[in-house]
Write a structure and sequence with these properties.
Layout lengths: L2 H26 L3 H20 L4 H22 L4 H21 L8 H6 L7 H30 L1 H6 L4 H23 L4 H13 L5 H26 L3 H18 L7
Protein name: High-affinity zinc uptake system membrane protein ZnuB
Family: Belongs to the ABC-3 integral membrane protein family.
Keywords: Cell membrane, Ion transport, Membrane, Transmembrane, Transmembrane helix, Transport, Zinc, Zinc transport
Length: about 260
Amino acid sequence: MDDFLARALLGGVGVALAAGPLGAFIVWRRMAYFGDTLAHSGLLGIVLGTVLNLNLQLGVAITCLVVALVLVLLQRQRRLATDTLLGILAHTTLSLGLVALAFLETVRVDLTAYLFGDILAIGPIDLYWIWGGALLALGALAGLWRPLLAITVHEELAQVEGVPVFPVRLAFMLLVAIVIAVAMKVVGILLITSLLIIPAAAARRFARSPEGMALLASGLGCAAVGLGLWASLRWDTPAGPSVVLAAAFLFVLSSVVPGRSWR
């Protein structure tokens, strides 16, 4: 196997392993639009990293973390519905990133690679970022699993039982931000939410428990990466979108197979 293909597969698997469990909670909590909002803010992070001469993934991570924190603080005001806040933040950050990019006259940025991913260009340093971020997210999620599951099932009851709802919700949003930042290289800013949602949605019909759904979502995500890379090499198609289409194919396949979901 060529080195570039091995790195692409390793990077994609690293993202899929972390995206599966987080995607399960996104599906349970109906937070798909939240993932889109953070992904759109990633373009602003690219501009930040370019201006400050930072690693671009670090710039995206910082921006996504700030946007997640702002969203949590705005949600506490309860003046606007969450979907309204998400719409405002998503389009504002994306437009701000495009406008700021226009002022960088001396810098040439390949937007296509960042918007749709360039998994075949993953290098050794990118693998450190991807696997480091993925392991960090999985480790933190393991510690948050029970309280996060409690507020997912019934937030008011969990609060009565002493679960720190606000810190747990904030920590979960920050973990999603980290995964989006490290996944930028694999499927791009515009497609990362699909890797979070589609494998989890496909796994939902067959899981008998929350833990089972999280593990199955990771497995389906890894399968989508492998299948998408094979299709990209076989038919010379864009690698990132091919991975997303492979995940969609697995979802359609799961829809026609009888299953039994936990929730």
